[in-house]
């Protein structure tokens, strides 16, 4: 059998892709590094060459998910017509990563992964804020929004939605969570000086679906 030699980046991505599939199908805690080695078909030392621990590999997997989600949103924005608000609505109504990859993201709620969890949320906020900045600026040009600080508005919006609804960081009970979520539309409208009710879609058609 001819042995296939792969470049470092291709091999690293193969390991990440395999780990991502196994972590989601079987659960992070149940999957060992040895299992990943066997699944990829490489020497154990090769995995540890790229990732010093399973925790480091988990971080790479979540970063891969974040990057893929961001790329998907960029493509969707590019393909979506309408004004800035229409485009914001389109990407906000996409399925969340937590719904698509529940077992992987739930593993970040373990106490041992708390620091990693916060770091990865910060990466997500930074990525998405720049995408939302573009759409807020478009809305300002269209007269839908009014702000001299589109990036900072985007950062406030994304940080609030990601951090304040993350029960792995804040152990809200259902009423605490719903109170915050229900306030989001009017708060965003105030920040952007948008028409009242224009962001009500944020709490409709979602898991919480507040009326």
Structural overview:
There is one protein chain. With 211 residues, the protein is mainly α. The chain folds into two domains: 1-52, Arc Repressor Mutant, subunit A (Orthogonal Bundle); 56-203, Tetracycline Repressor, domain 2. It has helices spanning 8-26, 33-40, 44-50, 54-79, 84-92, 97-100, 102-106, 114-141, 150-163, 174-192. α1 packs across α2 (33-40), α1 packs across α4 (54-79) and α5 packs antiparallel against α8 (114-141). The model has no long low-confidence stretch (mean pLDDT 88).
Summing up helix and strand content along with how strands pair, one would put the structural category as mainly alpha
CATH superfamily of the largest domain: Tetracycline Repressor, domain 2
Order of helices and strands: HHHHHHHHHH
Overall domain count:
2
Strand content: under 5%
CATH A-level architecture of the largest domain: Orthogonal Bundle
The total beta strand count reads 0
Oligomeric grouping of the chains: single chain
Main beta-sheet annotation: none
Put simply, the count of helices is 10
First and last CA, distance: 62 Å
Which CATH class of the largest domain applies here? Mainly Alpha
